[in-house]
Structures are given as structure tokens and as C-alpha cells.
Amino acid sequence: MTSSPPQSLEDRVRSIVAEHRDDRGALLPILHAVMEEMGHVDPAAIPILADELNLSRADVYGVITFYHDFRQTPPGRKTIRICRAEACQAVGAAQLADNARARLGVGFGETTADGAVTLEQVFCLGNCATGPSVQVDGRLYGRVSPEQLDGMLEVGA
Amino acid sequence: MTASGQVATVYVPRDSAARSVGADEVADAVAAQAGRPVRVVRNGSRGMLWLEPLVEVETPAGRIAYGPVAPEDVEGLVAAGILDGATGHPLCLGPTEDIDWLRDQTRVTFARVGVVDPVSAEDYVAHGGLSGLRRALSLSPAQVVAEVTESGLRGRGGAGFPAGIKWKTVLEAGSELKFVCCNADEGDSGTFADRMLMEGDPFTLIEGMTIAAWAVGASEGYIYVRSEYPDAIDTLRAAIGTAYDQGWLGKRVLDSELSFDLFVRVGGGAYICGEETSMLESLEGKRGMVRAKPPIPALEGLFGKPTVVNNVLTLGSVPMILADGPAAYADLGVGRSRGTQVFQLGGNIARGGIVETAFGITLGDLVGRYGGGTRSGRPVRAVQVGGPLGAYLPTSRFDLPMDYEAFAAADAMVGHGGVVVFDDTVDMAGQARFAMEFCAAESCGKCTPCRVGAVRGVEVIDRIVAGVDREKNLKVLGDLCDLMTEGSLCAMGGLTPMPVKSALAHFPDDFATTTTEEGR
Ligand SMILES: Cc1cc2nc3c(=O)[nH]c(=O)nc-3n(C[C@H](O)[C@H](O)[C@H](O)COP(=O)(O)O)c2cc1C
Ligand code: SF4
Ligand code: FES
Ligand code: FES
Fold it and tell me: Where along this sequence does the record place binding of [2Fe-2S] cluster (chain A) (predicted)?
């Protein structure tokens, strides 16, 4: 992909859609691409997507809200996801979850007021023999100790 | 020290579990500190996850294993001569193939995982890859279906439906357009075998899907991978690209009549999208609302066309079945559970990982002999088998053989083969509550018993534990469970009562309040 001068949201969304023109049932791949490029799905993109894909706005909105992955507000500079499923519960995930909420002062699905960290919960990262598991900006960590989590919550100066 | 000076071949897994505990740093350290030319191969994991990062060095006598290796161990290991296969270092585990945990398994579906370079086409072929597909293409589609049926292969995604029967339905459905869809949503906590196969031997899945396409007359395939698996997604995309380059996918596969295109699609972080009809809706770009059956996907699946939907391990077992013949596979196992199952040991377990073995091994053997008990060193108290919708079992049920029918008879399920261990600090009322909470959070919302029942379930369990109208609320919980079991459209609502009722049945004391005067 070549970079061109800054584009409007509309142009960016339309060009993402164009790349997925040949995909069957393209809405999910398109939404993932929008997330990848912009970090969230701006509500202003909904009518554009609806127009491009010949769907109603309600259809597009319904899909965005059904899936946990698609957020409509920008995430923090760092996203920390803590696994809260059974195998990680068995090795101390609840403590990690409590520590993270207390340290950051936010709940799951929220971003700190300074925009530094978004805290999320996730149910299983496929790392169930080497838990508790935490994902930081897409990178997976296993056997995470409370001290290690403290390090992850530390936001680089 | 015979090989000194030659290029040493060192294996450091690229598996995401290994990476999660430092395999990338170890690989970098090996390359930087070897002091001589080394070839670092990023293989899949052997599945001995408590030993990760596991480093292997190739020697004339086979591969020698070291683990678990921290980046700061590398200098000492190199100094001890491991690049020549020295065995004196305390982290040395001896020849990999002789480690009893691995040696005592029957690796069929996982035969190449950890052995080969996952994205090397040459390695794949050198280790027997494509022989199943070549043989399949020399047979008629109906013959391939017959062999899969004879092998006794049942779906590994949970329900255990015979794969051959599903394929036959799709083969016989008249349609110009048919699909093969691989369910790689693997949402169950405690399961990671799909991920490890996709990361460790992706060509096997591609080959299995291509055989399925030939067998049923499909021209297009989709692998629906959960977004929580970014490494698996990357590895699959790389392998599919290579497969096209090699002529294993696309027009005239291996110069045969078959044309087959394969795509990776990424899920949206919804557990319910592992249910096959929800997955199909999602693949169509819609909300993952479960469809009522009939029509079955085999007849009206993706975009209304006849569609094979199978789990990663089901499709990943097909190449071996075609290569070695159905009898070899059917000879393994017990009763109507034929072949091997890839069990996954997780949670609070000393030696967690992949145990592929014939059906029929007992739960106790898996948790004790392989798993070595808990990681915490405390007594095992409960084991959840088959994911979040599976039963919690006490150690008194460790005699149960891992077999679909035996588990069903014990009000439990084998499911996708995940075994999650808890020590004696677990609060089983809390686990039962979580099962309801999870259902409430992940319900697709289509039917009331599931959507509303799960929310009610959380409240009722809270009341029971708080000692409010205990007897009455226990009855309410029982009725609620029955309603969910009977009245839910799919197994999300239908099976959520299983962990709840099993926790109640086997661990009733945990549901008593601390200040109870009613006793249990
Ligand atoms: C709530 C729910 C979640 C499921 N999740 C998965 C999953 O993650 N992976 C899977 O292969 N099957 C899953 N299944 C089972 C599928 O519906 C389906 O039976 C399976 O993909 C068929 O393939 P198989 O016959 O090869 O097992 C799930 C079922 C339910 C009800
Ligand atoms: S049981 Fe639950 S998940 Fe299944 S269709 Fe009904 S509401 Fe959806
Ligand atoms: S339960 Fe946490 S990684 Fe699977
Ligand atoms: S499944 Fe996640 S919002 Fe319904």
C-alpha cells in the first residue's frame, strides 16, 4: 500500500471497502480492516458502510455492536487484556483482574482518564497450560505474576 | 564434540504459548551467543508446555532437548557445549523422543507438530505431507467419503457427529456451489489444540480441507479463526500463500480435476460464533445469531449452499486417515470413540500441554500420570472437562474413561478434549456462578431461556450462597436449569446447566453459607 495525502474518513472507509470488493460477506473483514487502520469504528463510518454495501444503517450498527472486538471510541495508547476464563481462574487470574482495576482505577472495557491504558477482559487466549495469561497490544504473556502485571500497567514515561 | 565448527541446527518454538514465556528472546539469545554459525528453526511446540521455552539441538543421534530455558540460561548452555549436543547441563532433558511424557503418546493428528518447520513446504513433504491428498485424488469422491466413514472419525468440535455421514450428505446434495468451512473458533477455556495445530502444522489443515473439498465437490473453503489467535492467523495466511505457490491450492490442485480456493476469516470476539450456524452467519457478514435447525448446514449452510462444517482437529486428522487407510485409525480407541483424541491439560496443573492418545485413557491417568497433579502442589479438588459448558468432576470420578458415551452416561462431556484442573482453594459455587455469568455475557440473545435464564441463574446462586430462602432457591435453580436444558435453541443455553448442576451435585458444601443454620 502506498501512502497518499491525508484522506477524509469517507475516502478511507471507501478505499477499505474497495479492497474487499470480491470478498463474500465482506462486512467483518472490512470492520477488522477499519479497526486495524483507525483503532476504532467511528460512528460516522456507519452510513458510509451501509451505502457501500447496500445495507441499512441498522444492519451495520447491529453487527458492530454484536461483536466485542469492534469499538466505537478510540482505545488508550496501550491495551491490556486479562484472561478471566476458567483455566486462568485456577491459577490466580482473579487477583490479576483485581490488581489491574485497582491500580488503573477503571473497570473492564474502560480507558484511563489520561488515555494511557484501556483495560479489557477476555475469555481464553488459548494459553491455558501456561496461565495466567495477559495480552498487551496483541502480544501474549503467560505465567504472569502480580509483579509482572505491575510492570505492564506502568506506563512508559 | 565431533560436529564442532559445523552449522548447528537449533529449534526454538514459534508457538504462541512458548512465545508467551520468552521463546523469542531465547531464539535471539541463541543466535547472538552461539559464537559460530547456527540455523535457528522456529518449530511448533512439542506440547510439553511446562518445559517451554524448550530448545532442541539436532545431533547425529537425533534431537536433544533442554528446558525450560530462560534467555539468561543460553550463555551457560552454549558454554556447556549444547550446540554439539552435550548432555551435562542441568536443563538437559535427553533425546526429545525419549521423554516418557511424549514417548507414551500416540501422535497421529499431531505427528508433525513440533517436528517440522511449520511454514516449510519441503519439510512438510519430507515428513509425509500430501500423501493423503494424493491418494484421495486417485479415488472417487464417494470412495473418499467411504474411507472417512470407515475410520470412525467423529467431529472433534464437541458434539462428536460422524464426519463421514456429514460429508456424504454434502456430496449427495445437488449444487453448483458448495463450501468447506473449518471451525477454528476454539472458544472453550482450557482448549488450545486447534491453535497449536494451526501454528505448528498448518499444511495438515489445508490438506485436510482440500481432501474434504474433493470428497464433497466443494470449490471454496473458509477457515474461521478467532481474533484472539493472531499468530495462528499469520501462520495460516503464510501457509496458504505457499500452498498456492506450490500448486496445492487454486486451479487444478496437484494437476488434478480439483479446483479449490481457501480463505482465512477472523472472528469478532464472540464465543457463540463457535456454534456452527452462528459461525456461518458471521462468515456471511452478519450478527452471529444462531439459526434454527433444520435446515442443516450440510444442505443449506453458507449463503444457503451445501456446506461441510468441521473442527480443526477433525479436518486435521483426515490426511493421516487417507494416507494410512481407515483401518489404522479405527484400530485405535474404544467403543464408538475411534482413533485418537488430542487432550489438552490446563489450569492448575504441574505438567500441562497436549496429550494425544487413543480414546479410553482414564481421566485420572491424564491428570495424574501425565499432568503430575497441580502446579500449586496442593491437592486436586475439581476438574472441568470439555470447556465452559462441561461438567465439574471430583477426583472420585477419575476412573472415568475418556470416551464420548462413558462421559455422557456420567452427565459430563468430553467436548473438545480440554481438561482444566483446580486445587482445593477453588470455590465451586463461584465456578457455578461464573458459568451462568459467562452464558449471560455470551448468549446470542435469540431465545429467552438462555438470555434471561442465565441472568436469573446468577441472582439465584447469589441468594443461595447468601443463605436467603435456601431450600426454595435451590429448587428455583433446579427448575431454571431444566428450563434452560429443555427450552434453549442451541447448546449454549442448553449445556450451561451442566457445570452448574455438576458443581451442585459433587460439591454441595460450597453452596452452604458460612453462617448457615440449615446445614446443607
Ligand atoms: C456454544 C457453542 C460453541 C461452540 N464452539 C465451537 C468451537 O469453538 N469450535 C468447534 O469446532 N465447534 C464448536 N461448537 C460445535 C459446533 O457447533 C459444531 O458442532 C462443530 O463445529 C462441527 O464440527 P465437528 O463435527 O468437526 O466437531 C460449539 C457449539 C456450541 C453450541
Ligand atoms: S441458547 Fe442462547 S446462544 Fe443458543 S440460540 Fe438461544 S439465546 Fe442464542
Ligand atoms: S483460560 Fe486463560 S488462556 Fe485459556
Ligand atoms: S455474543 Fe458478545 S455481544 Fe452477544
Answer: 83, 88, 124, 128
Instruction: Say whether B286 and A27 touch across the interface (CB within 8 A).
Output: yes
CA distance B348 to chain A (A): 5
- Give yes or no for a contact between B222 and B302, defined as CB atoms under 8 angstroms apart: yes
> Strands, E, within B166-268: which ranges?
179-184, 220-225, 261-266
Examine the predicted complex and report whether its ipTM is higher than 0.90: yes
DSSP string, B18-31: HHHTTHHHHHHHHH
Q: What is A78-153's CATH number, 3.30.1330.200, 1.10.10.10, 3.30.830.10, 3.40.30.10?
A: 3.40.30.10
Which of B225, B265, B312, B420 is the mutation pick for testing A, counting most A CBs within 10 A?
Answer: B420
Closest CA to B181 of B284, B319, B290: B284
The closest of B409, B384, B391 to B498, measured between CA atoms, is: B391
Beta strands in A1-157 (DSSP E): 78-83, 110-111, 117-122, 134-136, 139-141
B297 lines ligand 1 (CB under 6 A): no
Gap between the Cα atoms of B24 and B352, Å rounded: 21
Query: Is the minimum CB–CB distance between B352 and chain A shorter than 8 Å?
Result: yes
Q: How does pLDDT run across B211-268, given as a tens digit for each residue? A: 999 999 999 999 999 999 999 999 999 999 999 999 999 999 999 999 999 999 999 9
Cβ contacts of residue A103 below 8 Å, gap of 6+? A150, A153
CB distance B196 to ligand 1 below 6 Å: no
Kind and range of the H or E element at B121? helix B121-126
Q: Any CB–CB contact under 8 A between B205 and chain A?
A: no
B277, B286, B444: residue to mutate for ligand 4 pocket, most atoms within 8 A of CB: B444
Beta-bridge mates of residue B341: B357
Q: What is the DSSP letter of B367?
A: I
User: For residue B384, which residues of chain A lie inside 8 Å, CB to CB?
Assistant: 86
Grid coordinates of B353 = 500441554
Give dist(CA A143, CA B52) in Å, integer.
11
Question: CATH assignment of B8-103, given 3.40.50.300, 3.40.50.10260, 3.40.50.2000, 3.40.30.10?
Answer: 3.40.30.10
Q: What is the pLDDT of residue B514?
A: 55
Distances (CA, A) of B261 to B100, B136, B166, B238: 41, 18, 21, 15
pLDDT exceeds 80 at position B143: yes
Residue reference for cell 565448527: B5
**The C-alpha cell of B298 is what?**
450440510
Per-residue pLDDT tens for B38-80? 999 999 999 999 999 999 999 999 999 999 999 999 999 999 9
